[in-house]
Task: inverse folding
């Protein structure tokens, strides 16, 4: 009897972790897997969201790939993602360096820089649209007061500038978040490494490139992957509120074009085909990034 | 014990998740325990007064009829089709929906998303002033009834400033340029402001310029284009773009208009940083409230010799319809509420919260001011339907993008009309778009949008 009951008990014990995962699994199936496979399925149909779906095979993919605005939006998405990733990480790392030192008012600065993270995109979008307003905007007024009229630009109306204006605002919102991650990474670096570097006669730059950055590698990987994938798939709100993809599609990102196609043009099948294409691109990008940046020894400690 | 507790908590969470959603179909119909309910979907009201008025009307109706009205206000006017789509997919109950008649024509109608209300409304057509329901008939069928103020494009100006400078509102392009020059010289401000940051607003300018360049034949020419009979690449079409560019080239509008949204436009005008504005009549109340000077209106000036000034005008930007997926057993209750809404005293209460410029439902008109009188006297008699109520969304978007591109010199009018034509061609190729979709429907299609009232 005892020999039979032992495996039975073992089986019961093994079931427990799965049961614990069940709520999360249900959420994942309901809100990630089911929508994904529904989207994949409907991408093979012409469907306006109301009437009967009509099978069109790969037509939606053909239409998507021959859609100039979709290609433009993919290019803008890539530019947005790269710019945002660079700006966020460089500025956040620099701020983390400064704010890791001890000085009066450090907490105020840390709080102030983190504050935009807690604000919604709607608040931020409206705030910055007013700041960029050509008649009342603070920015142009400041430039005028400083005698820099030549620098007054159509921040959101010039197709050569508008995308970078949105990049600046999105970076401003998230810099505090990445700064906190870098601060945590900096504080985790053992002081003994700097002491050893001092003994070896290393200067500040050598310590930065030989001690700090290598030790921060895993934090940098996390920050870069998060900001890059985030910039790919979480740029809808800020673009929609600030420019709605204009002027002349110069700030059109894949998500705004997908939403327009789905709900304004009532072409859900084509919009889903675009979403699948975007998903594939983000997947490849994320995988390549992890492959290139992650090293096994990043996580050994 | 810990494991048991953890298991119970996990099970409770799983149960609560599975209990999410899942409304019973036909929940609007009467049951023994519950009151029958009519769900009304509309955009969030413009003011708390308007919301309060709707709540009072719903409560009064419930007292009279025993039918509960659930007011579901969400999002903006433009987001209602999306909300309706989501409601259909998730099986939510929606019995009445407020949506633009232009959206029905271009999107919801061909998608069979709303019901043919011709028979349902037969007894109530006399509740509307003559001609008001016309724009809600598409293909000879009534798809909705207007229940919001009508609107038109208009030019507003600072009459106090004009009087001070000895200026008269312009009637021709030459006068418009002269007036603008004087305003800039004397006051050092921009002559006219427009909310070009809102992409959807640019076609409003084109409605008025194309009305003139088409020889006052804009609707017929657009219909011909949308039926595939003609291309949208002719001289009149290009000239419509050129005239808008002229507004900027000749100093009537400045580059500030590209970066200014509706609130910014009103603030610019009210703070006298611009002497004129091009807008829709829906902006007038806010402008009037924010301005401490006299505001007056003038017609869009004549820009083409031999043409007549015509203005875009429409009834039904806010129209109430019945979704085709509404519970058929509840339509009688919905129509009882519709009848209640169309009573003059109820319509007056709801539609005069924001001062109406035009009488849409009999009895729902407030005392007008000089601007309202002017609009009714001069603008309405010389008006054509908003073209974006006819265009499919793809074409409308093409206009929204190309007009500012031409106005700012980033695109030529020749390129712009090609983009518009390409947008139409794409809609035809990818969605099998047809302008007169009602003529292509089968009996089976009509059955989907025809109310089947229970005996």
Result:
């Amino acid at each position: 009897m005892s020999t039979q009951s032992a495996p039975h008990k073992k089986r019961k014990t093994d079931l427990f972790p799965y049961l614990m995962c069940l709520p999360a699994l249900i959420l994942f199936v309901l809100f990630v897997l089911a929508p994904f496979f529904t989207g994949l399925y409907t991408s093979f149909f012409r469907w306006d969201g109301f009437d009967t779906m009509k099978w069109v095979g790969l037509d939606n993919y053909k239409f998507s790939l021959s859609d100039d605005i979709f290609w433009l939006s993919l290019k803008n998405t890539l530019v947005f993602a790269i710019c945002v990733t660079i700006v966020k990480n460089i500025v956040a790392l620099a701020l983390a360096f400064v704010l890791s030192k001890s000085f009066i008012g450090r907490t105020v600065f840390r709080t102030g820089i983190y504050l935009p993270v807690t604000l919604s995109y709607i608040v931020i979008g409206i705030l910055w649209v007013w700041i960029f307003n050509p008649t009342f905007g603070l920015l142009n007024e400041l430039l005028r007061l400083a005698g820099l009229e030549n620098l007054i630009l159509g921040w959101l109306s010039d197709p050569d500038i508008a995308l970078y204006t949105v990049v600046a605002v999105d970076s401003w919102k998230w810099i505090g978040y990445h700064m906190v991650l870098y601060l945590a990474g900096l504080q985790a670096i053992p002081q003994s490494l700097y002491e050893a570097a001092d003994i070896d006669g290393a200067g500040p730059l050598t310590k930065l490139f030989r001690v700090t950055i290598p030790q921060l590698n895993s934090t940098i990987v996390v920050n870069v992957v998060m900001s890059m994938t985030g910039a790919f798939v979480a740029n809808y709100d800020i673009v929609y509120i600030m420019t709605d993809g204009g002027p002349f599609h110069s700030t059109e990102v894949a998500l705004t074009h997908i939403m327009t196609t789905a709900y304004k043009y009532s072409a859900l099948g084509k919009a889903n085909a675009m979403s699948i294409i975007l998903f594939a691109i983000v997947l490849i990008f994320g995988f390549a990034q992890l492959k290139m940046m992650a090293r096994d020894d990043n996580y050994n400690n | 014990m810990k494991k048991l507790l953890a298991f119970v908590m996990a099970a409770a969470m799983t149960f609560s998740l599975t209990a999410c959603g899942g409304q019973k179909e036909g929940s609007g119909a009467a049951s023994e325990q519950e009151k029958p309910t009519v769900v009304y979907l509309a955009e969030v009201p413009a003011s708390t007064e308007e919301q309060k008025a709707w709540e009072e009307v719903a409560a009064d109706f419930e007292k009279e009829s025993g039918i509960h009205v659930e007011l579901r206000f969400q999002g903006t006017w433009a987001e209602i089709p999306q909300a309706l789509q989501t409601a259909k997919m998730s099986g939510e109950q929606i019995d009445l929906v407020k949506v633009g008649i232009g959206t029905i024509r271009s999107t919801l109608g061909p998608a069979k998303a709303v019901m043919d209300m011709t028979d349902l409304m037969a007894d109530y057509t006399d509740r509307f002033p003559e001609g008001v329901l016309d724009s809600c008939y598409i293909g000879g069928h009534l798809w909705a009834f207007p229940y919001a103020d009508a609107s038109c494009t208009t030019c507003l100006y600072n009459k106090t400033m004009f009087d001070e400078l000895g200026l008269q509102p312009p009637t021709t392009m030459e006068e418009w340029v002269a007036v603008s020059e004087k305003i800039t010289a004397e006051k050092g401000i921009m002559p006219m402001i427009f909310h070009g940051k809102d992409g959807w607003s640019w076609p409003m300018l084109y409605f008025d310029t194309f009305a003139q360049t088409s020889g006052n034949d804009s609707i017929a020419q657009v219909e011909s284009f949308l039926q595939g009979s003609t291309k949208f690449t002719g001289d009149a079409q290009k000239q419509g773009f050129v005239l808008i560019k002229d507004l900027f080239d000749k100093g009537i509008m400045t580059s500030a208009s590209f970066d200014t949204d509706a609130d910014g436009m009103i603030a610019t005008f009210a703070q006298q940083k611009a002497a004129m504005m091009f807008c829709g009549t829906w902006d007038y109340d806010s402008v009037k409230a924010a301005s401490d000077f006299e505001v007056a209106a003038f017609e869009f000036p004549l820009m083409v010799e031999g043409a007549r000034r015509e203005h875009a005008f429409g009834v039904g930007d806010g129209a109430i319809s019945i979704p085709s997926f509404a519970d058929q057993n509840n339509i009688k209750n919905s129509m009882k509420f519709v009848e209640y809404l169309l009573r003059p005293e109820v319509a007056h209460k709801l539609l005069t919260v924001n001062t109406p410029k035009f009488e849409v439902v009999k009895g729902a008109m407030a005392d007008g001011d000089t601007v309202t009188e002017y609009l009714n006297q001069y603008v309405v008699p010389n008006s054509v339907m908003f073209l974006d109520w006819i265009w499919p969304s793809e074409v409308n978007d093409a206009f929204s993008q190309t007009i500012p591109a031409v106005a700012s010199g980033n695109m030529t009018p020749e390129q712009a009309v090609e983009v518009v034509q390409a947008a139409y061609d794409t809609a035809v190729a990818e969605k099998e778009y047809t302008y007169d979709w009602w003529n292509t429907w089968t009996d089976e299609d009509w059955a989907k949008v025809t109310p089947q009232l229970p005996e």
